[in-house]
Amino acid sequence: MTVTAATVKPVALALAIAAGVLVQCDRARAQSSDDTETALVAGGCFWCVEADFERVQGVEEVVSGFAGGDVDNPTYKQVTGGDTGHLEVAQIRYDPDEISYEQILDLFLRSIDPLDAGGQFCDRGESYATAIFAQTEAQRQAAEAAVAEAEQELGREIVTPVRGPAEFWPADAYHQDYYRSDERVLTRFGWIDKADAYKRYRDACGRDARVRELWGEDAPFVGG
Fold first, then answer.
1. How far apart are CA 162 and CA 139, in angstroms?
2. pTM given for the model
3. Distance CA 147, CA 91 (A)
4. From the candidates 25, 45, 48, 122, which is the catalytic residue?
5. With 0-12 CB in 10 A as exposed, 13-18 as middle and 19+ as buried, what is 62?
6. Is residue 25 annotated as a catalytic residue, yes or no?
7. Which of 122, 130, 196, 217 is the most exposed place for a label (fewest CB within 10 A)?
């Protein structure tokens, strides 16, 4: 399913999911990279943010990784161990002619629990905290406006901070496109595809249930 950006309103974007068709894209697109921009966000498990935004029309590529800490090129084990100060993040590369930075943030804030400062859903600890990393002054202003609008909609204080520029470190290949990989991994359910393991994890973690509880019909990536 494709989430379109015909309007900035999350309700319309959510409705577009039901009417859309899954866009199968060539993720290389190196020749168009000069025409794209990037957003850097932390929304808990980076597999989930990647899975959500790679079906948004206008998004060229999403890369899972880390940002915000003080260790160069950290490993997944280091970050989740809480030793580096990094958060799990997603670098979203998008075509600004199809979707704006503001629309990316509207979707992002309504795909997480921005009231939770201790992590996201079943994933607890600093590395799973939420944040928007504004890389420019224009992004900072847009991010603060998006947070204020989301606060008004919920009627509660949002704890997702707008942070300054941060270096992005891609996670290793094992974590990229986890949600759609047919590579087999050993889990408590036995040997299953990563895609199946991801779905079971997301369901068990309660991500979609909590997002639906908070945002209702404005939640763009979950059903009603």
1. 10
2. 0.86
3. 19
4. 45
5. buried
6. no
7. 217
Distance from C-alpha of 195 to C-alpha of 192, rounded to nearest angstrom: 8
User: 1-33: per-residue pLDDT in tens?
Assistant: 566 654 445 444 543 443 333 333 444 443 344
The tokens describing 167, both together, are: 């270096």
Dihedral angle computed from the Cα positions of residues 147, 87, 39 and 18, in that order, rounded to the nearest 10 degrees: -70
How far is residue 89's CA from residue 149's CA, in Å, rounded to a whole number?
Answer: 22
pLDDT interval class at 189 (50, 70, 90): confident
**Pairwise CA distance, residues 63 & 29, whole Å:** 14
Query: Do the beta carbons of residue 112 and residue 43 sit within 8 Å?
Result: yes
Q: How many CB atoms lie within 10 A of CB 210?
A: 19
Residue type, 199: K
CA distances from 199 to 14, 34, 78, 129, 155 (A): 20, 34, 25, 21, 31
Query: Which tokens is 83 given?
Result: 């030793």
Selection from 25, 26, 36 nearest residue 97 by Cα: 36
Retrieve residue 6's tokens: 């015909």
Show the domains of the chain with their CATH numbers.
10-218 (3.30.1060.10)
Going by C-beta distance under 8 Å and a sequence separation of 6 or more, which residues neighbour residue 146? 102, 105, 106, 109, 132
